[in-house]
Queue: 2 jobs
Job 1
Amino acid sequence: MKHFFRTLSSVLTAAALLCCGCADMGAGKAVQPGAQEGNGGHGDSAGPWRYTDTAMGTVVQMTVYTERQEEAETFSGQTMELLAGLEREEISWRLDTSEVCRANESAGSAQGFPLSVELSALLSDCLELWERSEGAFDVTLGAVTRLWNIDQWAAGEALEDFSPPSEELLARALEHCGSGRLRLAEEGAAGDGGLRLYMPEGMGLDLGAVGKGLAMEKALALLADRPDVTGAVISLGGSILTYGSKTEGAPWRVGIVDPFDTSDSIGILTLEGQWCISTSGDYERYVEADGVRYHHILDPETGAPAVSDVRGVTILMKDGLLCDGLSTACYILGPEKGMDLAGQYGAEALFVMADGEIVMSEGMEQCFTEQ
Ligand code: AMP
Ligand code: MG
């Protein structure tokens, strides 16, 4: 895939206020969580129907195109159940009801752990991404992410008594990390095609970098079963799924958050049909202590927040899981290696650099409108 680089630094110095409200959804844009609401003031019968709720530690926003409000409500309820179930039964490392939690408990056992077909596929994809990203993306960082308590952070909220883990603690935790030390073997759960996972003692999976991606995949499968829903946009924190079309046939418009002012967007992606859009950035989840900002994307070599010239990366592609994984990987790799990696997966990428430069792939350029 051929890419070219373009500088749009004027975007970030422009005085004009950006209008995220004119987009169907702003990637990672903060909104107030609240109870589900009916349609967004479009009258009782026409839709679209809009819902806001929370799941997987993030705000979930949905815009649903169906003929009847009742159908939209059923769909949004099913989606919320699906997200809660995904956390509870599959990917949470805290809840002992989840498969990841049980897999982590099996670390060090000679028998290994029989994975479900779904988690087998997910981990296989994650291992491939680990290899292709030269180790930058690594879902075995559990021992380290726990030291930082990342899942307790929000964007910039003060945490009582936060202090970064010492280098010695990090070095010790890193001994338990590394996808190269994990093994997936044939013959998993009950001969159903699932794989068996072998992890050394102390290793822990952290699927935080792909959780929203898996959620987008599941939402897509649900949509495939709901022909009455003809269009939808679902936003889960930094990941957004578009599906189908609006009743009036206009394209989707998705805002990309400005890392320098997260109440604004740097531009809008105009998209037709089904897409996944994931953004990773140092402004999404972080904590500050003694004037230092610690963000949530860790460098597997040091166990510390990745030192990067990048403030945010947005990936655009059809596949949800890879989209989410790639945005995390590309943040660490930076634009040159990151563009190459995204290109290997047929994904489009946009990087917002620390000096305000915007670097994007050719396909991204075609749907991006500067604000
Ligand atoms: P995202 O917001 O999708 O970029 O994912 C960030 C989350 O992934 C963090 O909160 C961690 O749980 C986890 N994580 C942090 N660093 C890495 C890394 N280098 N590779 C894979 N997962 C990571
Ligand atoms: Mg991610």
Job 2
Amino acid sequence: MNIKELIQETKQRIEDIQIETAKELEEFRLKFLTKKGELTELFNAFKEIPNEEKREVGQLLNQLKQSAQGKFDERKEVVEESVGEEVKYDKTLPGVNVSQGSRHPLSIVQNNMIDIFKQMGFSISEGPEIEDDWHNFSALNFPENHPARDMQDTFFIDKDISLRTHTSSVQVRVMENEDPPIRTISPGRVYRNEAISARSNSFFHQIEGLYIDEGVSFADLKQTLFLFVQQFFGEKTKVRFRPSYFPFTEPSAEMDIYLGTATEEDYRLTKGTGWLEILGCGMVDVNVLKNCGIDTEKYSGFAFGMGVERIAMFQYGIKDIRTLFENDIRFLEQFKSLG
Ligand code: PHE
């Protein structure tokens, strides 16, 4: 083979070589482009050829060198890029787990309750958690130094300021600021200085309702709460009202729903009676209406209040109230599908 044929043959081989990996690229470099490579050998042979052929062969050799270098540069770029891609998109790696949040069980229950009252035309009102004596107690007909204040073990900040013990305080604010008809519910967090146990915590959540208009009666109260219970607990749910006492309502009652005692859990929850107390209610005391500037000749109203935790615990079979506030993901994740 003369040198021209050799150059042609080498050129063809270089063109035919497949370079896909970094290893193949390096092999190519060693074979053709280093001092000990094939091209150097050809350049050495070039020195031996007769002068009249040098011009033509020299050109061919330069072209060969350029195409070898060109191929190396081009493949280098491709190989390096694909190495990067392999790292970025290694399809065999396990996926990154994007964990999705979920609503807190208390929010789920609270939202369900709010939806029902909204349908009945109740608005939502909110107020401060740090409250003055007037809105939490005095306006609600708790006489000063009256033992009724002990019913709600209060966290006092100073003599006149405390953490609200119920969201009835919000309703006082609504009555002071709005004219009847008033139809509102106040959801929110409340605080009581109670010994912490599986059944009670130093804070919890309430939804309280207030309806004031001309001619509102106890029958309206019963019907509203009955409708709520049917929608929330199911149409066949039985309820009963028991007489009770609250300073701000007269007459006052507590409402129970009937669970029966068939299961051990229902027996435990209802202390063997079959009835579970879910809320307090009553006709707003005339003194409260007066304190809030409402014309008692014209208007009357009812109020009710219930604890969200108690109902959530009953609905989801939660045995310890404290689990609601520990934010243990393993607990919270169980409510994913509900909210
Ligand atoms: N505020 C009462 C409580 O916290 C509940 C209640 C509200 C009772 C309205 C009667 C009427 O226990």
